Amino acid sequence: MLPSQISVNISFFQPSAFMMIGIPGLETVHGWISIPFSSMYTVALTGNFLILLAVKRTPSLHQPMYYFLSMLALTDVGLTLSTLPTTLAVLWFDHRLIGFNACLVQMFFLHSFSVVESSVLLAMSFDRFVAISNPLRYAAVLTNNVIIRIGLVIVARATMSLFPVPFLLKRLNFCPGKILLSHSFCFHADVMKRACADITVNILYGLYVVLSTVGVDSLLIVMSYTLILHTVMGLASPRERLRALNTCVSHILAVLVFYIPVIGVSMIHRFGRHLPHIVHALVAYVYLVVPPVLNPIIYSVKSKPIREAMIKVLKAKG
């Protein structure tokens, strides 16, 4: 038994660290590339923290719609902080190593915040549906207790869905020569491809998580807006229809900003193996960096109450 045990231990390999890359083929100009990335991270964190402070300090914004917006802003902060340390470490200092366990932790939080964002967007679509279809019962349906429960369910769902993923990766045997990742952060589809073992279980579970979270959420959001559109078309006045639809514009833009890159990342990882590595990298950066940057801009431009509250916060800081 002893020789066989020794051979098993020798044959099983997990790297102590992975090697990350920034943008393939552009390593020599990473210093310059770090400028727009640093700017986007700064805008994302500043904009989302401003939304959180604006909602907290403005009593008139203590409504379900803005509580859900705060959830979205908090999720965007988490998503930004999940990738910021390693991305800037690669671009600024050419520090490319990330420990195996640290990589799994980053991957867990990165994908968890993505699932949370999808769930929050679904909750926001439900909020818009209740506000438009039954405005008189809006406050009675979406009470503070209900909103807290929705938030807890969202977090629990993401945690339970992603919790098995690191352990499914830790059971794999990795190749000693395959430690170079395709991004400056740990992405599940990227990490599992570095294994020298059967990854069928990982692929199937990853597909299950995507379909049961983002896939289901996107379908329910479409259903919500189908019902919203049906309700709006039943309004007598064209002005009332326009006013009702105008309350949904910000959310629709946030949905598009999140789901279009998600679809792009999923398609490229499954069908775009022949594409240059730089395409994979850029699509992943768009998926993870752009939504947290654009969401505060969208809501500050399209929502007058949010814009005014954010300006008050800035003036108070000044």
Automatic annotation (TrEMBL):
Keyword Transmembrane: yes
Keyword presence, Lyase: no
Biological process per Gene Ontology, one example term: cellular response to lipid
Principal place of residence: membrane
Transmembrane feature ranges: 7-26, 32-55, 67-93, 105-126, 138-160, 203-228, 249-272, 278-301
UniProtKB keywords: Cell membrane, G-protein coupled receptor, Membrane, Olfaction, Receptor, Sensory transduction, Transducer, Transmembrane, Transmembrane helix
Localization in the cell: Cell membrane; Membrane
Gene Ontology CC, one term: plasma membrane
Family: Belongs to the G-protein coupled receptor 1 family.
Stated name of the protein: Olfactory receptor
The organism's taxonomic lineage, starting at the top: Eukaryota, Metazoa, Chordata, Craniata, Vertebrata
